[in-house]
Amino acid sequence: MEGENGVKLHGMWASTYSKRVELALRLKGVPYEYIEEDLSNKSQQLLEYNPVHKKVPVLVHNGKPIVESYVILEYIDERAKVRFWASYIQQQATKSQPQNFIKTKSNGQEDVSI
Ligand SMILES: N[C@@H](CCC(=O)N[C@@H](CS)C(=O)NCC(=O)O)C(=O)O
């Protein structure tokens, strides 16, 4: 079975649908493994991941397949937003280390507010 982790793209070199997904992954800086499909002899994985249309592109994220290029683009965009805010919150949390909130009282004791 295909690995559960990471991002894999089943595509075909001449497919503009595949190309737009590849472009989005690159623009967002998402590392991925590319699997070239022979559309005259489709892989078993492609048929399992996209049993209705049996078409590329198929994005597989942590073992979960996503089909239809526009759906995939939306998914990539949403994930990028989540990663942006997670990183922003992490940066803000790092700036607000507890030592920034330690005040020395007049009696010499430290008052910590987090
Ligand atoms: N609506 C689909 C279209 C995908 C599509 O037409 N893919 C073609 C390659 S460009 C394909 O896999 N064709 C194989 C077939 O029809 O058997 C999308 O946006 O992802």
From TrEMBL:
Q: Which GO terms describe its cellular component?
A: cytosol
Instruction: Please provide the record's keywords in A-Z order.
Output: Cytoplasm, Transferase
Keyword Cytoplasm carried by entry: yes
EC class, as a word, reads transferase
Reaction catalyzed? RX + glutathione = an S-substituted glutathione + a halide anion + H(+)
Q: Where in the cell is it found?
A: Cytoplasm, Cytosol
InterPro entries per UniProt: Glutathione_S-Trfase, Glutathione_S-Trfase_N, Omega/Tau-like, Thioredoxin-like_sf
Question: What are the boundaries of the region Disordered?
Answer: 92-114
Query: Does the UniProt entry include the keyword Transferase?
Result: yes
* EC number assigned by the record: 2.5.1.18
> Per UniProt, what is one Pfam family of this protein?
GST_N
Name the GO terms of the biological process aspect.
glutathione metabolic process
A molecular function annotated in GO for this UniProt entry is:
glutathione transferase activity
PROSITE patterns with a match to the protein in the record: GST_NTER (PS50404)
Q: Where is the GST N-terminal domain?
A: 5-84
Q: Which family does it belong to?
A: Belongs to the GST superfamily.
State what this protein does: Is involved in the conjugation of reduced glutathione to a wide number of exogenous and endogenous hydrophobic electrophiles.
Record protein name field: Glutathione S-transferase
The scientific name of the source species is: Malus baccata
